[in-house]
Amino acid sequence: MPRILVCYKWVLDEQDIKINRDNLSLDTSKAKYKIGEYDRNAIEEGVLLAEKLGGSVDVLTFGTAAVKQSLKDVLSRGPEKAYFIGDPLAEKADASVTAAVLAAAIRKIGPYDIILCAEGSTDEYNQQVAPRLAKMLDIPAVTFVNKLSLEGNQVQAARKLGDCTEVLHVEGAAVVSVMPEINKPRIPSLKQVLAAAKKPSEELKLTDLQLDEKALTPKVIKLSIRGFVMNRKNIIHKELSQTDNVAKLVAELAKEGVY
């Protein structure tokens, strides 16, 4: 029976983030955290595989000290055990550092037959962690998967590639990133939420993962984040003829170089 691991990220809820119109800075002072929307699909897929095939599902996350708040939520969704690394370094970590930390943790707690990730995180969505993680673990990466199954030690996956689908088989362990349409994440029941409090979790210290300074140095430095505000022109054409309205709209779009 397979040992399954799902990596997830604890992110700010974008619905709570406000934009300061004076300087376009982000106001996160009242923002709550949540499990990333796409990560929920990865968690659900891991649980579905375990329900079908048996085996076990663990989860792993890297974040600031706030990540500990995610444990009850993530365990209520079906995984049996949660591992977490809570360290201030996560605040400035890019995909390279995140993948290095996750890979080191997996070497410590693994091995696993399949490692699931979201297609990208809800906040930064750089889509790099899964392939980088596979490279660091020296196992295949299968990305953009919208259909997944396991048979013995073989991963069978369908990948969404533009206007076509690629079906492939992988022997042995692999890192798989899944698309949102692969499933519909379950909403934990009250019973599952209460049971989550009794499930085990384990903190892994960053200092115990034997990573050198180079691995923990971000390649991408985030200088600032600015919001985007769309200023609408609010032009309404009120000609009696819809043909005239469309003609005026097209003329204005052409004037602005839209087409």
Estimated share of beta-strand residues: 25-35%
Q: Could you describe the largest sheet, including whether it forms a barrel?
A: 9 strands, mixed
Q: What would the average pLDDT be, to the nearest integer? A: 93
pLDDT < 50 runs, ≥5 residues: none
Total beta strand runs: 13
Secondary structure layout plus pairing:
Blueprint: E1 3-8, E2 10-12, E3 18-19, E4 26-27, E5 33-35, H1 37-53, E6 56-63, H2 71-76, E7 81-86, H3 95-109, E8 114-118, H4 129-137, E9 141-151, E10 154-161, E11 164-171, E12 174-178, H5 190-196, E13 201-203, H6 242-255
Parallel strand pairs: 1-6, 1-8, 6-7, 7-13, 8-12, 9-12
Antiparallel strand pairs: 2-5, 3-4, 9-10, 10-11
Describe the structure.
This protein is an alpha/beta fold. The chain has six helices and 13 strands. The protein is globular. The protein starts with a strand and ends with a helix. The model has no long low-confidence stretch (mean pLDDT 93).
